Amino acid sequence: MKNGIKHKFIELAQCGIQFKADNDGPLKFSGHASVFNNVDVVGDSVMPGAFADTLKNREAPVRLRWNHFGPVIGKWLELKEDETGLFVEGELTPGHSTAEDVGASLKHGAVDGLSIGYRILDSEMRDEVLLLKELELVEISVVEEPANREALVSQVKSVIESATSLKELEALLRDAGGFSKANAAALISRVKGCLGDPGHADSKPEALSVPDFADLVDQSFNGLYDSLTQRS
Asked: What is the pTM of this model?
């Protein structure tokens, strides 16, 4: 069974986006959708060569999407590894209203950046850093609000650290984290299972790391994400 799809975001300023356009042709842009050897906020580092096999042997095209769950807004003309990371060149679909809106926002710097959708095929934990050695690239999105683990951790980290019990954490997730009552309860149930103490609602949440908690939330959305990305 394949691992679930994860997301990793790179800010627009780090992408090095450049534009190519003529008056009558589609808007083209290039830059980097992933940077090698950079330890991110959840302790992941994408290693050189991580995309080599997926770029060479992929059976389906890597989609160019809007916000991961949105429509396909164009196509990738070139995907390759260079010394910096994953270099991409994309072309937005002429006459597509969303694509044209996204293109205008890209040129104006009004979007947050790019985000890859991927599965981990090979990794290694070293000195508390997860080295991502081989990835299956599923899609790359232009994103307005990054739907990725980094954004997730930013949202829930302060909530987790301020909680003194799992019961309090559940309440904080609803009040400060924006989770519904059902989703917060479901997540806490999974946390209890990971802690190995499902019978004690007041177990301390600190035993589960922030990245591990982020993984639990990731898993909650993987089924929906898979179904959406397989439609087109």
From this structure: 0.66
